[in-house]
Amino acid sequence: xxxxxxxxxxxxxxxxxxxxxxxxxxxxxxxxxxxxxxxxxxxxxxxxxxxxxxxxxxxxxxxxxxxxxxxxxxxxxxxxxxxxxxxxxxxxxxxxxxxxxxxxxxxxxxxxxxxxxxxxxxxxxxxxxxxxxxxxxxxxxxxxxxxxxxxxxxxxxxxxxxxxxxxxxxxxxxxxxxxxxxxxxxxxxxxxxxxxxxxxxxxxxxxxxxxxxxxxxxxxxxxxxxxxx
Length: 229
Prior knowledge:
- There is one protein chain.
- By secondary structure, the chain is α+β, with helices and mostly antiparallel strands.
- The chain has one domain (about 5-225): SOS response associated peptidase-like (hypothetical protein yedk fold), CATH 3.90.1680.
- Helices cover about 15% and strands about 30% of the residues.
- Strands 3, 4, 5, 6, 9, 10 and 11 form a 7-stranded mixed sheet that branches.
- Helix 1 packs parallel to helix 4 (about 180-185) and helix 4 (about 180-185) runs antiparallel to helix 5 (about 190-200).
- It starts with a strand and ends in a 21-residue tail after the last strand.
- The relative contact order is 0.20.
């Protein structure tokens, strides 16, 4: 699963990513660099996602932990921070969003823990050149009652790990290359299925980081700095 990740700048995008963003009529560098860095994004916190809004695609802060429209309260969101690629189209909590509310979740990298219970070591998994990663995600809207404001929430889709991330954990976020962004956001369900099924393995690296990242109250840049074991 992916239970913590980070997004910080300065964000720079490749030529391919810029072309893909231009196709969506968004400015990734502007939208992400004007936000405060987030070194320890945890469930229930707000984080930027790229999704369709009135007038086109936008980058906006959304609560992590998808809450289906039929949910009775917010608590279910804590259990729906990830959607498994194997069941995302059929599971009741995700299937509606999969049909028409797909999103992209930008990240600098994500954290996973490895080791025996009580002595797990966190690692930061990222692109070797610190390029921006883009996770496949879903978003949803929910409100407690008719008089309440709508709340937007999201989840990150996970699948089998790659050769590198598999050293640390048996799952990883589905990372979409730029040439898949448009199809993921705009295609019908069959196209979305094809994107997930054929997403090529992302080039990743990892290093150990401080156990302080395990505390959601910690937010400093030191959380993504490598340490010696």
